[in-house]
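As a warm-up, study this chain.
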Amino acid sequence: MTTSRLAILLAILLGGMSAIHFLPKQQSFEQPRGVTLELPKLVGGIWYGRDLEVSDRERGGLGAGTEFARKSYTNARGDEIQASIVLSGRDMNTSIHRPEWCLPAQGWTIAESQSAKLFLPDRGALPTTRLANMRLIRDPATGEPVPGRDGQPLTIRNLDYYWFVGYTGATGSHFRRNCMDIADRLIHGYNQRWAFVMVMANVTEDFRTNGLNSEQTDAMLQEFIKKLVPAIHQESVRLN
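Now compare it with the structure written out below.
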């Protein structure tokens, strides 16, 4: 009885070890990616972009080989949207992280975080995460909060959409991205370069006479993203 159990165990062990030969070969040198690392100069015919610098602090905090693209877009009304792409180096774990980790360090409080699907004509649904953020305006000299007309501290409100893009798919979830990456390595045999895309804008109704409220800012961001995605997603990326 013991001998037959050992034989079965040995057969399972040998079978598992030999199965490794049937897995796809890993692409060690050329890592496929699903984005073009070049933000367009013009989006939707009305948004004009100018390059923004990426600080040495940001570059130093991420892994070797990480690449960046960042632009500030404005329209004729004076509205502004900031768009960023971070493309991972060979080590995805040191190149890509969620903004929930870094926004608090920049003084932002994340008031709301939720999943949001944006429906793009002829492409499908883009899964994203939508953040609503708040930050006190502080006096640069003293660091104290700046009071408004009512005596209460002035607060900036901000809306932020982000998502991750792999070689063939996109997701707004950090956990889902890891699952997709593992599956692609095991099933398809490639170690892809993931990209993190973020599009954000401040709510301006409290600071401009023609400023936008939260709902208007949200609608503006969604329309911008629908025009941006076809310009930066490669054809290999499939949306549901």
